Task: structure prediction
Amino acid sequence: MNPVLRWFHQLGSPPYFYRFAGRWMPWFGWSALLLGALGLYLGMVRAPADYLQGDSFRIIYIHVPCAWMSLFVYVVLAVNGTIALIWRIKLSELLLLACAPVGAMFTAITLITGMLWGKPTWGAYWVWDARLTSELVLLFLYFGVIGLASAYDDVRQGARAAAVLALVGVVNVPIIHFSVKWWNTLHQGETVRIFGQSSIDASMVWPLLVMALATKLYFAFAVLLRTRGLLLEQERAKQWARDAVTGAT
Amino acid sequence: MLAWLEAQGHWGFIALSLAVTFALVLADLLPPWLRQRRLRSQIRARLRRERADAR
Result:
Protein backbone atom coordinates (compact mmCIF):
# COMPACT_ATOMS: atom_id res chain seq x y z
CA MET A 1 0.00 0.00 0.00
CA ASN A 2 1.07 3.59 -0.67
CA PRO A 3 2.86 4.88 2.50
CA VAL A 4 0.78 8.10 2.61
CA LEU A 5 -2.45 6.12 2.29
CA ARG A 6 -1.24 3.71 4.99
CA TRP A 7 -0.47 6.67 7.29
CA PHE A 8 -4.02 8.01 6.76
CA HIS A 9 -5.45 4.58 7.62
CA GLN A 10 -3.30 4.45 10.75
CA LEU A 11 -4.44 7.96 11.72
CA GLY A 12 -8.03 6.70 11.73
CA SER A 13 -7.19 4.29 14.55
CA PRO A 14 -8.05 5.86 17.97
CA PRO A 15 -4.93 4.64 19.86
CA TYR A 16 -2.63 5.79 17.04
CA PHE A 17 -4.35 9.19 16.82
CA TYR A 18 -4.25 9.64 20.61
CA ARG A 19 -0.47 9.07 20.63
CA PHE A 20 0.03 11.18 17.46
CA ALA A 21 -1.92 14.11 18.99
CA GLY A 22 0.00 13.83 22.26
CA ARG A 23 3.30 14.04 20.40
CA TRP A 24 2.38 17.04 18.23
CA MET A 25 0.30 19.14 20.64
CA PRO A 26 3.25 20.74 22.50
CA TRP A 27 4.89 21.72 19.17
CA PHE A 28 1.72 23.33 17.84
CA GLY A 29 0.87 24.97 21.17
CA TRP A 30 4.27 26.52 21.90
CA SER A 31 4.90 27.66 18.32
CA ALA A 32 1.40 29.26 18.23
CA LEU A 33 2.17 31.10 21.47
CA LEU A 34 5.59 32.30 20.30
CA LEU A 35 4.42 33.33 16.83
CA GLY A 36 1.30 34.98 18.28
CA ALA A 37 3.44 37.03 20.67
CA LEU A 38 5.83 37.97 17.84
CA GLY A 39 2.97 38.86 15.46
CA LEU A 40 1.27 41.04 18.09
CA TYR A 41 4.57 42.79 18.91
CA LEU A 42 5.24 43.48 15.21
CA GLY A 43 1.66 44.60 14.58
CA MET A 44 1.05 46.66 17.71
CA VAL A 45 4.53 48.18 18.15
CA ARG A 46 6.63 47.99 14.98
CA ALA A 47 4.13 48.46 12.12
CA PRO A 48 3.55 52.11 11.16
CA ALA A 49 0.13 53.70 11.75
CA ASP A 50 -2.17 53.84 8.73
CA TYR A 51 -2.26 57.25 6.99
CA LEU A 52 -6.07 57.25 6.93
CA GLN A 53 -7.26 55.01 9.78
CA GLY A 54 -4.51 55.88 12.28
CA ASP A 55 -3.72 53.34 15.00
CA SER A 56 -7.15 51.68 14.93
CA PHE A 57 -6.05 49.75 11.81
CA ARG A 58 -3.87 47.59 14.15
CA ILE A 59 -7.02 45.65 15.03
CA ILE A 60 -6.57 43.90 11.65
CA TYR A 61 -3.76 41.85 13.21
CA ILE A 62 -6.42 40.07 15.28
CA HIS A 63 -9.50 40.54 13.09
CA VAL A 64 -8.21 39.40 9.69
CA PRO A 65 -6.39 36.16 10.71
CA CYS A 66 -9.43 35.17 12.80
CA ALA A 67 -11.76 35.93 9.85
CA TRP A 68 -9.63 33.72 7.56
CA MET A 69 -9.71 30.98 10.20
CA SER A 70 -13.49 31.22 10.65
CA LEU A 71 -13.88 30.23 6.96
CA PHE A 72 -11.03 27.70 6.93
CA VAL A 73 -12.34 25.88 10.03
CA TYR A 74 -15.81 25.63 8.49
CA VAL A 75 -14.33 24.01 5.38
CA VAL A 76 -12.40 21.54 7.60
CA LEU A 77 -15.69 20.90 9.45
CA ALA A 78 -17.53 20.20 6.19
CA VAL A 79 -14.75 17.88 4.90
CA ASN A 80 -14.88 15.89 8.14
CA GLY A 81 -18.68 15.87 7.92
CA THR A 82 -18.47 14.40 4.39
CA ILE A 83 -16.03 11.69 5.53
CA ALA A 84 -18.20 10.95 8.58
CA LEU A 85 -21.34 10.60 6.46
CA ILE A 86 -19.82 8.53 3.63
CA TRP A 87 -17.21 6.34 5.35
CA ARG A 88 -18.52 6.60 8.94
CA ILE A 89 -15.03 7.00 10.35
CA LYS A 90 -15.34 7.65 14.08
CA LEU A 91 -12.34 9.97 14.17
CA SER A 92 -13.88 12.28 11.53
CA GLU A 93 -17.03 12.54 13.63
CA LEU A 94 -14.95 13.53 16.65
CA LEU A 95 -12.87 15.99 14.60
CA LEU A 96 -16.10 17.63 13.42
CA LEU A 97 -17.25 17.97 17.04
CA ALA A 98 -13.84 19.36 18.03
CA CYS A 99 -13.68 21.89 15.16
CA ALA A 100 -17.09 23.52 15.78
CA PRO A 101 -16.36 25.36 19.09
CA VAL A 102 -12.94 26.51 17.84
CA GLY A 103 -14.53 27.85 14.63
CA ALA A 104 -17.27 29.57 16.66
CA MET A 105 -14.57 31.22 18.79
CA PHE A 106 -12.73 32.53 15.70
CA THR A 107 -16.02 33.83 14.25
CA ALA A 108 -16.98 35.54 17.52
CA ILE A 109 -13.54 37.23 17.71
CA THR A 110 -13.93 38.33 14.06
CA LEU A 111 -17.33 39.89 14.71
CA ILE A 112 -16.40 41.60 18.00
CA THR A 113 -13.05 42.98 16.79
CA GLY A 114 -14.74 44.03 13.53
CA MET A 115 -17.27 46.04 15.53
CA LEU A 116 -14.46 47.63 17.55
CA TRP A 117 -12.67 48.52 14.32
CA GLY A 118 -15.88 49.73 12.68
CA LYS A 119 -16.63 52.43 15.22
CA PRO A 120 -13.50 54.58 14.73
CA THR A 121 -13.35 53.77 10.98
CA TRP A 122 -17.01 53.94 9.83
CA GLY A 123 -18.58 55.69 12.81
CA ALA A 124 -20.81 52.66 13.59
CA TYR A 125 -20.30 49.42 15.50
CA TRP A 126 -22.61 47.47 13.24
CA VAL A 127 -24.23 47.84 9.82
CA TRP A 128 -26.37 45.21 8.07
CA ASP A 129 -23.82 44.94 5.29
CA ALA A 130 -23.44 41.73 3.22
CA ARG A 131 -20.04 40.77 4.68
CA LEU A 132 -21.03 41.38 8.30
CA THR A 133 -24.40 39.68 7.96
CA SER A 134 -23.02 36.58 6.22
CA GLU A 135 -20.30 36.29 8.90
CA LEU A 136 -23.03 36.49 11.56
CA VAL A 137 -24.89 33.69 9.74
CA LEU A 138 -21.64 31.66 9.94
CA LEU A 139 -21.63 32.11 13.75
CA PHE A 140 -25.23 30.85 13.88
CA LEU A 141 -24.23 27.87 11.71
CA TYR A 142 -21.46 26.99 14.17
CA PHE A 143 -23.95 27.30 17.06
CA GLY A 144 -26.36 25.09 15.08
CA VAL A 145 -23.70 22.40 14.58
CA ILE A 146 -22.75 22.48 18.30
CA GLY A 147 -26.39 22.47 19.41
CA LEU A 148 -27.48 19.71 17.04
CA ALA A 149 -24.55 17.48 18.00
CA SER A 150 -25.31 17.83 21.70
CA ALA A 151 -29.05 17.26 21.24
CA TYR A 152 -28.49 13.49 20.85
CA ASP A 153 -27.61 11.09 23.66
CA ASP A 154 -25.54 9.04 21.23
CA VAL A 155 -22.42 11.07 20.33
CA ARG A 156 -21.98 9.37 16.93
CA GLN A 157 -25.59 9.95 15.91
CA GLY A 158 -25.31 13.61 16.99
CA ALA A 159 -22.11 14.03 15.00
CA ARG A 160 -23.74 12.63 11.84
CA ALA A 161 -26.76 14.97 12.23
CA ALA A 162 -24.36 17.90 12.71
CA ALA A 163 -22.43 16.75 9.61
CA VAL A 164 -25.55 17.26 7.47
CA LEU A 165 -25.94 20.83 8.76
CA ALA A 166 -22.21 21.44 8.23
CA LEU A 167 -22.56 20.35 4.59
CA VAL A 168 -25.64 22.50 3.97
CA GLY A 169 -23.98 25.52 5.59
CA VAL A 170 -20.81 25.32 3.51
CA VAL A 171 -22.64 27.32 0.81
CA ASN A 172 -22.19 30.34 3.09
CA VAL A 173 -18.37 30.21 2.78
CA PRO A 174 -18.12 31.52 -0.84
CA ILE A 175 -20.91 34.00 -0.06
CA ILE A 176 -18.79 35.50 2.76
CA HIS A 177 -15.65 35.52 0.61
CA PHE A 178 -17.23 37.11 -2.47
CA SER A 179 -19.75 39.35 -0.65
CA VAL A 180 -17.48 42.39 -1.02
CA LYS A 181 -17.37 41.81 -4.81
CA TRP A 182 -21.00 40.81 -5.40
CA TRP A 183 -22.60 43.64 -3.42
CA ASN A 184 -21.83 47.24 -2.58
CA THR A 185 -20.58 46.93 0.97
CA LEU A 186 -19.25 49.28 3.60
CA HIS A 187 -16.70 46.60 4.45
CA GLN A 188 -13.47 47.14 2.52
CA GLY A 189 -12.56 44.85 -0.36
CA GLU A 190 -9.75 42.32 -0.57
CA THR A 191 -6.50 43.86 0.73
CA VAL A 192 -4.13 40.89 0.82
CA ARG A 193 -3.95 38.75 -2.32
CA ILE A 194 -2.13 35.45 -2.72
CA PHE A 195 -1.99 35.96 -6.48
CA GLY A 196 -1.39 39.52 -7.65
CA GLN A 197 -0.52 42.83 -6.03
CA SER A 198 -1.69 43.39 -2.45
CA SER A 199 -2.96 46.88 -1.61
CA ILE A 200 -1.19 46.84 1.78
CA ASP A 201 2.43 47.88 2.36
CA ALA A 202 5.00 45.13 3.06
CA SER A 203 5.82 46.64 6.49
CA MET A 204 2.18 46.09 7.45
CA VAL A 205 1.66 42.71 5.75
CA TRP A 206 4.42 40.73 7.51
CA PRO A 207 2.91 40.89 11.01
CA LEU A 208 -0.39 39.82 9.43
CA LEU A 209 1.18 36.73 7.86
CA VAL A 210 2.89 35.83 11.17
CA MET A 211 -0.47 36.11 12.94
CA ALA A 212 -2.12 34.02 10.21
CA LEU A 213 0.41 31.24 10.82
CA ALA A 214 -0.05 31.55 14.61
CA THR A 215 -3.84 31.14 14.32
CA LYS A 216 -3.39 28.05 12.09
CA LEU A 217 -1.05 26.48 14.68
CA TYR A 218 -3.46 27.41 17.49
CA PHE A 219 -6.27 25.71 15.58
CA ALA A 220 -4.20 22.52 15.20
CA PHE A 221 -3.40 22.59 18.94
CA ALA A 222 -6.98 23.27 20.07
CA VAL A 223 -8.50 20.62 17.78
CA LEU A 224 -5.98 17.96 18.87
CA LEU A 225 -6.65 18.83 22.53
CA ARG A 226 -10.42 18.56 22.09
CA THR A 227 -10.26 15.40 19.95
CA ARG A 228 -7.99 13.66 22.48
CA GLY A 229 -10.51 14.46 25.22
CA LEU A 230 -13.45 13.19 23.15
CA LEU A 231 -11.54 10.00 22.24
CA LEU A 232 -10.72 9.32 25.87
CA GLU A 233 -14.33 9.90 26.89
CA GLN A 234 -15.63 7.56 24.17
CA GLU A 235 -13.08 4.80 24.68
CA ARG A 236 -12.43 5.02 28.41
CA ALA A 237 -13.43 1.38 28.97
CA LYS A 238 -10.96 0.08 26.36
CA GLN A 239 -7.58 -1.27 27.33
CA TRP A 240 -5.61 1.12 25.08
CA ALA A 241 -7.19 4.15 26.83
CA ARG A 242 -6.29 2.74 30.26
CA ASP A 243 -2.75 2.05 29.08
CA ALA A 244 -2.47 5.55 27.59
CA VAL A 245 -3.55 7.19 30.86
CA THR A 246 -1.26 5.10 33.04
CA GLY A 247 1.60 5.46 30.58
CA ALA A 248 1.81 1.72 29.95
CA THR A 249 2.28 2.30 26.19
CA MET B 1 -19.74 52.53 29.10
CA LEU B 2 -19.51 52.89 25.30
CA ALA B 3 -19.00 56.65 25.73
CA TRP B 4 -16.12 55.92 28.10
CA LEU B 5 -14.60 53.47 25.60
CA GLU B 6 -14.88 55.97 22.76
CA ALA B 7 -13.23 58.63 24.94
CA GLN B 8 -10.11 56.41 25.19
CA GLY B 9 -9.40 56.87 21.47
CA HIS B 10 -8.00 54.26 19.09
CA TRP B 11 -5.89 52.50 21.72
CA GLY B 12 -9.01 51.91 23.82
CA PHE B 13 -10.56 49.94 20.96
CA ILE B 14 -7.28 48.05 20.40
CA ALA B 15 -6.94 47.18 24.11
CA LEU B 16 -10.53 45.94 24.27
CA SER B 17 -9.99 43.83 21.11
CA LEU B 18 -6.94 42.20 22.73
CA ALA B 19 -8.78 41.62 26.02
CA VAL B 20 -11.79 40.02 24.29
CA THR B 21 -9.50 37.81 22.20
CA PHE B 22 -7.54 36.55 25.23
CA ALA B 23 -10.76 35.93 27.16
CA LEU B 24 -12.30 33.92 24.30
CA VAL B 25 -9.10 31.90 23.75
CA LEU B 26 -9.03 31.02 27.46
CA ALA B 27 -12.73 30.12 27.35
CA ASP B 28 -11.97 27.87 24.35
CA LEU B 29 -8.99 26.08 25.90
CA LEU B 30 -9.71 25.74 29.61
CA PRO B 31 -12.93 23.61 29.62
CA PRO B 32 -11.60 20.77 27.38
CA TRP B 33 -8.26 20.78 29.21
CA LEU B 34 -9.92 20.58 32.64
CA ARG B 35 -12.37 17.92 31.42
CA GLN B 36 -9.52 15.80 30.10
CA ARG B 37 -7.62 16.12 33.40
CA ARG B 38 -10.73 15.05 35.34
CA LEU B 39 -11.29 12.13 32.97
CA ARG B 40 -7.71 10.93 33.30
CA SER B 41 -7.87 11.04 37.09
CA GLN B 42 -11.22 9.15 37.01
CA ILE B 43 -9.68 6.42 34.85
CA ARG B 44 -6.65 6.17 37.17
CA ALA B 45 -8.91 5.98 40.26
CA ARG B 46 -10.99 3.26 38.64
CA LEU B 47 -7.87 1.25 37.80
CA ARG B 48 -6.64 1.58 41.39
CA ARG B 49 -10.03 0.40 42.69
CA GLU B 50 -10.01 -2.58 40.32
CA ARG B 51 -6.49 -3.57 41.39
CA ALA B 52 -7.46 -3.28 45.08
CA ASP B 53 -10.58 -5.43 44.47
CA ALA B 54 -8.47 -8.03 42.66
CA ARG B 55 -6.21 -8.36 45.72
